[in-house]
Design brief:
Ferredoxin, alpha+beta, three-stranded antiparallel β-sheet
Amino acid sequence: MSSGSFSVDRELCRGTGLCQAMVPALFGRTDSGYPAADTGELADERSVVLADEVAECCPTGAIEVFRHDPVHE
């Protein structure tokens, strides 16, 4: 099972709210309209996929998603 994390570049973010509109469970917003967190953990594959979809739609490319695939021994 994959997990991951994401980061939001506050310098690139313009506060359009698209991320929060697409997946409010992952991307909350502050009162000023910007993402509530600069980083976040993604506990399962479904969350990673959703975050990837949001990152692809971000108009400024401010969201980056990192996959943490388990190591197979």
